[in-house]
From TrEMBL:
One of its GO terms (biological process) is post-embryonic development. GO terms for cellular component: chloroplast; mitochondrion. It catalyses: tRNA(Trp) + L-tryptophan + ATP = L-tryptophyl-tRNA(Trp) + AMP + diphosphate + H(+). InterPro entries: aa-tRNA-synth_I_CS (IPR001412), aa-tRNA-synth_Ic (IPR002305), Rossmann-like_a/b/a_fold (IPR014729), Trp-tRNA-ligase (IPR002306), Trp-tRNA-ligase_bac-type (IPR024109), Trp-tRNA_synthetase (IPR050203). This is tryptophan--tRNA ligase. It is found in: Mitochondrion. The lineage of its organism: Eukaryota, Viridiplantae, Streptophyta, Embryophyta, Tracheophyta. It is an enzyme of class 6 (ligase).
Amino acid sequence: MGRAILSHFLILSNSAPLLSSSSISKLNGFASKSVRIRQNSKYSNGFRCYCDVSPSQQTSPENSPTSVTVKKRIVSGVQPTGSVHLGNYLGAIKNWIDLQNTYETLFFIVDLHAITLPYDTKELSKATRDTAAIYLACGIDASKASVFVQSHVHAHVELMWLLSSATPIGWLNRMIQFKEKSRKAGDENVGVALLTYPVLMASDILLYQSDFVPVGEDQKQHLELTRELAERVNYLYGGRKWKKLGGRGGSIFKVPEPLIPPAGARVMSLTDGLSKMSKSAPSDQSRINLLDPKDVIANKIKRCKTDSFPALEFDNPERPECNNLLSVYQLVSGKTKEDVAKECQGLNWGSFKPLLTDALIEHLYPIQVRYEEIHSDSAYLDSVLEEGARKASEIADATLKNVYQAMGFLRR
């Protein structure tokens, strides 16, 4: 998925703007024992992370002042590549399947983000459809979640332009990905979109008044710009200023919180246990693609990097590959970490690799079968994307209308 947005957000620098603790309001209806407050982080400053929020902790009629349960809203998405890998699936999509049963969910393919760097125009639409089919094949239920294409909801681009007027250029200049990619490509080959796409990322989230955004443990900073921008726009245009223009007053945008999955948020490369699994890696041997045939999966696991330590173990910093492969086995087998540690502690690599290969093939086979069914039914896929865009547009247009009003535009 290249740079996956929302579930794989833009990496911000440590010098990204900070949120004041007084600006973050407590979310009602949640009381999770696994909520952790990062008080000592140099970039958090009151930034709360909701980790492993269970369905039982959702607001219910019994503990709510009203008799109607209002679901919290989650948005997330990935770039279209047509080749979703195991890291994308275990780190994001697999978690979405559980989330759609508890929250109001919107999952989309961020095709507008895919053009910030040179791309193949002939492949973009195909990759977009393929990615949508993979979403559904993995278990995203169109009757529970809105699945759509980013460019099919025009409000994304409109809100981006409005937010751009309130985004200090210094915030964007500090972005790590912009620095890294512009350095590699050279200034003459870098488009303005590479610098400004974090603003589009923010519009993707804020359009839908999201309560939570699923992000990996290493990606909390990705959301920080969005939160800071929401606070800034609320301050500049919200409250009494908005009310004087005929609006409802108060906050224009809800400030979203990060939802950190309890496991699987960071799957590493098969050729380097210190690097995240990525489509941009030069070698295809570094990743397991969800649509890889059985023999390809077996070959990649057979050739993947290991170490010379005896036995197998979790959480040894000197054994990143070992920890990664055991974690992958845990996730695709559905076993607990304790059970995997006990099962594998007496194994060597020669006996563990076939075990991991079989578990991967067994887990991915139903996804591959379902993908072929969905991909071959164009009418069904089109109808899902059309309905998803319609539902998303209803929410997005309402938000956009408020922003235009609060910023003083004359509307038709």
